[in-house]
Specification:
Helices cover 50% and strands 16% of the residues. Helix 9 crosses helix 11. The chain folds into two domains: 12-172, Butyryl-CoA Dehydrogenase, subunit A, domain 3; 180-298, Nuclear Transport Factor 2, Chain: A. The radius of gyration is 21 Å and the shape is globular. The chain is α+β, with helices and mostly antiparallel strands. Strands 2-1-6-5-4-3 form a six-stranded mixed β-sheet, covered by helices on one side. It contains eleven helices and six strands. The termini are far apart.
């Protein structure tokens, strides 16, 4: 009998629907673990293949099974990535996620999790298992029993890992909650000041100990080391804008990792994604991604 047009087994549709419903959460975990969109998508795809091939057919809780797979794959991938990043040219920044679209209540839940560039860099202080435990408990609200099962440790061990993780990142946590409208308003003023190429105008928006971190990955020009201090950062930002004054340049306000940021076009090509960290009404940190490998997903956008 010709089975080429035979309907799929009855379990296929519910299983697919379950995975689609959980996919935003799975991607959210993998991206926060790895900081690279393609790597996170590869992890989620591998989880899908294992799920589709019946790996979780006996799972009592599909979400727990899928999150466990994604978490353990991410831990393994991150161990390799840490070695790679030790040889990275210049500062490493996570690949920016632009204009996430909330399509469902589940997606909205994941968008509400901490996703900022500053938060992602904070996670870089943690070892792979520490990062997994911290994210699963602190961001995704799994209890200790669930986290223990997902990472293959005892509850007592997970509590110790989480305590250690909290201690390691405490100094890096943002000190002030930032109103989105204030963030957007300050970002707009920063773009205007930058375009003026006046260091004083830029500096007026910065905290005294402001930092500038550029990620070119050895493939695009940027500061090869982190720059410290409002005066130096102001002069750097103004100098960059002057350098590109004869180039067709446009700065678009977009959503970067859940907060307002800037997508810069040079001669119609995505050139940089900038995000800022705001503390006490001033810009405390500027993060600029210029590595073309991390801007590849923007190639299809229209200038």
């Amino acid at each position: 009998m010709d089975t080429s047009t035979a309907p799929a087994p009855a379990v296929a549709a519910p299983a697919t629907a379950t995975f689609v419903r959980l996919r935003p959460r799975l991607f959210g975990i993998a991206y926060r673990m790895l900081g690279i969109r393609a790597d996170a998508e590869d992890i989620v795809q591998e989880a899908w293949l294992r799920w589709q091939n019946g790996g979780g057919v006996a799972a009592h809780t599909p979400e727990a099974w899928l999150v466990t797979v994604v978490t353990r794959l991410s831990i393994d991938r991150l161990r390799g990535a840490i070695t790679e990043r030790e040889h990275y040219v210049g500062p490493w920044l996570p690949e920016p996620l632009l204009e996430q679209t909330v399509e469902s209540p589940e997606s909205a839940l994941e968008a509400a999790g901490d996703l900022s560039t500053a938060f992602m860099l904070m996670l870089e202080r943690l070892a792979p298992e520490e990062r997994a435990v911290f994210l699963l408990h602190q961001v995704f609200d799994f209890d200790y029993a669930e986290v223990a099962a997902m990472v293959g440790k005892t509850e007592a061990a997970c509590r110790k890992v989480l305590q250690r993780a909290r201690e390691r990142v405490r100094a890096e946590r943002p000190r002030f909650a930032v109103n989105r409208e204030l963030h957007l308003e300050l970002l707009g003023r920063f773009v205007q000041a930058s375009r003026s190429a006046d260091p004083a105008r830029v500096q007026a928006l910065l905290a005294a100990d402001a930092t500038y971190t550029g990620d070119g990955g050895g493939k695009a020009k940027t500061a090869v080391k982190q720059v410290f201090g409002a005066d130096r950062v102001g002069r750097l930002v103004a100098g960059i804008e002057r350098k590109w004054s004869d180039i067709d340049t446009r700065h678009d306000i977009v959503t970067v990792n859940g907060m307002p940021g800037v997508l810069t076009w040079r001669n119609g090509v995505p050139d940089a994604v900038t995000s800022i960290q705001v503390e006490d009404g001033r810009i405390a940190a500027i993060y600029v991604v210029r590595n073309p490998d991390k801007l590849g997903s923007l190639a299809g956008r229209r200038a």
